[in-house]
Design brief:
By secondary structure, this protein is of the alpha/beta class. The chain folds into 3 domains: 7-87 and 276-293, NadA-like (Rossmann fold); 91-173 and 306-315, Rossmann fold; 181-267, Rossmann fold. 42% of the residues lie in helices and 15% in strands. It contains 15 helices and 12 strands. The protein has helices at residues 8-18, 31-36, 43-52, 64-73, 96-105, 119-122, 134-139, 153-163, 176-179, 183-192, 206-215, 229-238, 252-259, 282-291, 300-315; strands at 21-26, 39-41, 57-61, 78-80, 110-114, 127-129, 147-150, 168-170, 197-200, 224-226, 243-247, 264-267. Strands 2-1-3-4 form a 4-stranded parallel sheet, sandwiched between helices. It has a 4-stranded parallel sheet with strand order 6-5-7-8. The chain has a 4-stranded parallel sheet with strand order 10-9-11-12, with helices on both faces. Helix 6 links the parallel strand 5 (110-114) and strand 6 (127-129). Helix 12 (229-238) packs parallel to helix 13 (252-259). The longest helix is centred in the C-terminal third of the chain and has 16 residues, at 300-315. The chain starts with 7 loop residues before the first helix and ends in a 9-residue tail after the last helix. It binds 1,3-dihydroxyacetonephosphate and iron/sulfur cluster (SF4). The site of 1,3-dihydroxyacetonephosphate has 11 residues, from loops.
């Protein structure tokens, strides 16, 4: 089962066809997996594809909550993940019990949860969002309603700034990978690369301070973009910059360089590697297709309620205001 033997990609595609499986890969997956997948994208795009494909099996190369979301949207399909232990530190930052207690403190508030949550948390949620559509989702809620936004504090701060919403309560969760990309690193790098553009994922610990630095003129506002992973691919296609500094998980660099080979894409922090995303290896993908494991399932009572919160998000439509 060697990836280097050159036949690996062909075997994967053949095994997938034999199982009537579609392979979905998140933008943070290792390059071999991105290249062999039928579809590569961000959380929102992959949720939409999962809901639409006709294949009887979905193989989700990403983290567990993403595969769970695919199962919610396609309950009659078999959903497989190459390693079910691929979790997410952000999803772990709020439990269903904690959310229930928070709701009890704010009766009548609308709960908006990032899709980086467990199905049990989604079941306690009114509407989900991803980094591509969080602004649209919050803007769709009547202004007189309080909002409980969870679990990412940095995405929450970004959305609050763009929507100018004053009645939004934000859970103080974070992703350990993105929180580790901080404003001082960014400031140093920007000073040494005065012509570079900046792509920043809104989960980054630096997203709030990057905007502060922009307003102070330290980081060039016109060259700073807050983008979801899909937004980064679109912006990479369009940019004429010689260099772009990228503040997100380093797996992202593969797609960016692929869509634009004229620009150099440099990570703001080379250590920003999600160990959970990297638990999905080429060898495990092959095992998954051969053995039909690990199967992703969600208990029916949780699935019913969780599905509604994801479907409300999908009904909001195409993201229009991810970044700035
Ligand atoms: P996207 O929604 O931008 O794909 O991000 C998902 C994620 O897990 C970021 O860490
Ligand atoms: Fe979760 Fe962070 Fe990994 Fe994304 S990068 S899957 S938010 S731990």
């Amino acid at each position: 089962m060697k990836v280097s033997d050159g036949d690996w990609a062909q075997r994967i595609r053949r095994l997938a066809a034999e199982r009537d499986a579609v392979i979905l890969a998140h933008n943070y997956q290792v390059p071999e997996i991105q290249d062999v997948a039928h579809h590569v994208g961000d959380s929102l795009a992959l949720s939409r594809i999962a809901a639409q494909v006709e294949n009887s099996t979905i193989v989700f190369c990403g983290v567990h909550f993403m595969a769970e979301t695919a199962k919610l949207l396609s309950p009659s399909k078999t959903v497989l993940i190459p390693d079910e232990r691929a979790g997410c530190s952000l999803a772990d930052s709020i439990t269903a019990d904690q959310l229930r207690a928070w709701k009890a403190e704010h009766p009548g508030a609308v709960v908006v949860s990032y899709v980086n949550t467990t199905a049990a948390v989604k079941a306690e949620t009114d509407i989900c969002c991803t980094s591509s559509n969080a602004v649209d989702v919050v803007a769709s809620i009547p202004t007189d309603k309080d909002i409980l936004f969870c679990p990412d504090q940095f995405l929450g701060a970004h959305v609050q700034r763009l929507t100018k919403r004053t009645n939004m309560h934000i859970w103080m969760g974070e992703c350990h990978v993105h929180a580790g990309i901080n404003g001082s690193e960014l400031k140093q790098l920007v000073a040494s690369e005065p012509d570079a553009e900046l792509f920043i994922h809104p989960e980054c610990g630096c997203a709030t301070s990057a905007m502060y630095l922009a307003s102070e003129g330290v980081v060039p506002a016109e060259r700073t973009k807050i983008l979801s992973t899909a937004g980064m691919v679109t912006a990479a296609r369009d940019t004429k910059a010689r260099k772009v500094l990228v503040a997100t998980e380093t797996g992202m660099l593969h797609q960016l360089q692929k869509v634009n080979s004229n620009t150099q894409f440099q990570p703001v922090n080379r250590a920003a590697v999600c160990k959970y995303m990297k638990m999905i290896t080429p060898e495990k993908l092959e095992r998954c297709l051969v053995e039909g494991t690990d199967v992703v399932d969600v208990p029916t009572d949780i699935a019913e309620r969780a599905r509604q919160s994801v479907e409300r998000m999908i009904a909001i439509g195409t993201p229009s205001r991810t970044g700035e």
